[in-house]
Amino acid sequence: MRVHGKDYRTVWMKGGRVYLIEQNRLPFEFRVVASRDYRQTCDAIRTMVVRGAGAIGAAAGFALAQAFLEAPARNPWPFVKRARTDIAKTRPTAQNLFYALQRVFDAAQAAHNPRTAALREAQALADEDAACSRSIGQHGTALIARRCTIATICNAGWLAFVDYGTALAPIYAAAAAGKKVFVYVHETRPRCQGARLTAWELGNAGIAHTIVPDHATAHLMAQGKIDLFIAGADRIAANGDTANKIGTCEKAIVARHYKVPFYIAAPTATIDPDCASGAHIPIEERSANEVLFQSGPDSAGRHRTIRTAAPGASAYNPAFDVTPARLITALITERGVVRPTRAALQRLLHSTPARAKR
Amino acid sequence: MRVHGKDYRTVWMKGGRVYLIEQNRLPFEFRVVASRDYRQTCDAIRTMVVRGAGAIGAAAGFALAQAFLEAPARNPWPFVKRARTDIAKTRPTAQNLFYALQRVFDAAQAAHNPRTAALREAQALADEDAACSRSIGQHGTALIARRCTIATICNAGWLAFVDYGTALAPIYAAAAAGKKVFVYVHETRPRCQGARLTAWELGNAGIAHTIVPDHATAHLMAQGKIDLFIAGADRIAANGDTANKIGTCEKAIVARHYKVPFYIAAPTATIDPDCASGAHIPIEERSANEVLFQSGPDSAGRHRTIRTAAPGASAYNPAFDVTPARLITALITERGVVRPTRAALQRLLHSTPARAKR
User: Considering only CA atoms, which of B83, B126, B248 is closest in space to residue A219?
Assistant: First the structure.
């Protein structure tokens, strides 16, 4: 994605360092931070310098590659295994994180030179993520009419992946094909990734959009203002139940009520074949402070944190919810658009990718 | 309601002045402002110094009484009629505002001394509002089990009325009766009246509660964490369709999905017999800035306004939505709990009040 006339990925690795776009400061400040070692990359994942399913996965892959670089050359395995455990603990919900760790670890273990193999696999994963997102855009754009109003939640754009994104990729592809799209961007409390990141991305790409409060969906749909809803995914269980940003399940229920198609866009790496159903997906609970306080620049551009809730009040802050498969019209994946059934997901996972993956 | 050991109403009139609790500064600062004339009272309604269906109604009644005091004694009517138009324009959705204007105007017109009659009627309206809220609490508490988890949206507590409130009145009554209640308070973006006002009220009253992001309802209900939902109302059409804070319709859809009872608590003054259905209720659209910016105290207690959305982004900010009657389990009114059907509402409006109203 181009920012200030230059092409960027959300996360990349060069010379042992992992570079990340600092998403906590976006959209008010565009800054790239460098992480020297795997522990710093863990911090970046934990503090959400990098966030979003695919970007977390790529960062985790790079972090494990960093661990191989840091480990004693003679016997890297004890160090690397500890590092893998540390990285796995940073965020519990995104399947892409565990998928990336497994892939990089397995590739290193099978290789003559684990260090080189880990680096190569982490890079391949990041490249695949970008390629998958691009394919999701191509498959998804077929669902978008020549004039279309689309709603989305949180940020499943290029900032949430290595490039292109998932929920936003079909929108970018549709706009590039000359379709007239308009996007209702849900603010997505408490961290406002919709109002901050998605609105910034769409503005950057010149796509018409407006921000709406999170619970305005029913009002918009009741008036026929939304043609379709596209959300991303952090983990898809084997039966199609999907964990994504808190609020996604609610949007799916409301969409069903108004008969608005509700799509989940995600690479097949988000599918967890070992997870039988949504009931088994761990849901991260984050700090109450994310709900009780809010940060942003004041009129002089100085970053401030203010209290937005009654002093002394507590808050409950589950970061994700699970949308039952029956409420999802279809999944948009890099291998095509499929119904979220156990059988269809199994076929998908065992199908030959439509395009070479590496 | 007691604040700092003293009993307060939300709005009252004394010696030609209207006194209002400044709700824009709550919960960070408790301050009472005095309005000298009807135009200042209009400003207070428009800028939401006073907000909430019943409190707006009482303030509007007092504003019209002020206009009678300000008008030339010999022929007050041209001045008063202009004032009535001005007051009616402050907020378009709350039925209580129009109800209060009609009542005060009619009482003055029928009286020998219009000025005295207007003052008396405005005061009677405020007293009735408090009495109605109290009765709503008594009727509503029967719906609350000995251990009960209740969710609410926005603020339909005593701050939204003259005293007691509507959605919160049954909760206050249940707690007073020794029931163990726990309240999930929806933050209620963009103005956060849940996180600010309802959390403050409940904390003040010693009732256990926690704040949740607005679109976390489905997640909570999926886990069986909410026994019932109670919301307030700004206008109820003759067929039971109900306008209330944006998000209410969405909550009702989600509640129906999970078979959680969904109640609207409101005095019969909120019913607009001239409004055939929800399609005829005007929905106020407020400034995009309410979505794009947020105010509150920083850690030093200084009030700051920060940007919470991408620079240059727009926002759509409908203040209310309409919940279709079929999604409402029942209305809790001062005259009892009724199903929201056209026939039941008609019976309700023509029934003798359970308690003397004046």
Answer: B248
SS (H, E, C) A213-231: CHHHHHHHHHCCCCCEEEE
What span, in angstroms and rounded, lies between the C-alpha atoms of A319 and A308? 19
Tokens at A311, concatenated: 């002093």
Sign of CA dihedral A320, A323, A329, A330: positive
Residue A234 annotated to the active site: yes
Kindly state the tokens that stand for A169: 């990729």
Tell me the H-state helices in chain A: 38-46, 53-70, 77-88, 95-110, 114-141, 169-176, 193, 199-204, 217-222, 248-257, 289-292, 342-350
Classified as helix, coil or strand, B302 is: coil
Q: What's the maximum distance between 2 C-alpha atoms anywhere in chain A?
A: 66
Q: Facing residues of A330 across strands? A: A263
Q: Can you state the angle between helices B38-46 and B53-70, rounded to 10 degrees?
A: 160
The torsion angles phi and psi of B225, rounded to 5 degrees, stand at -85, -10
Q: Give B243's contacts in chain A (Cβ within 8 Å).
A: none
Q: Write down how long chain B is.
A: 358
How far apart are alpha carbons B303 and A181 in whole angstroms?
Answer: 39
Q: Which of A227, A234, A272, A321 is catalytic?
A: A234
- For residues A269 and A127, the answer to whether their CB atoms sit within 8 Å is no
DSSP-based helix, strand, coil % in chain B, nearest 5: 40, 20, 40
Cis bond upstream, residue A324 (ω within 30): no
* Cα B151 from Cα B262, distance rounded (Å): 9
Distances (CA, A) of A266 to A64, A271, A272: 23, 9, 12
Check whether the bond before B27 is cis (ω within 30° of 0): yes
The pLDDT tens digits for B138-197 are 999 999 999 999 999 999 999 999 999 999 999 999 999 999 999 999 999 999 999 999
> How many residues comprise chain A?
358
Global pTM exceeds 0.90: yes
ipTM score here?
A: 0.93
Nearest-by-CA chain B residue for A194: B309
Give the one of A291, A298, A321 whose C-beta lies nearest to B187's C-beta.
A291
CB–CB contact A313 B211 (8 Å): yes
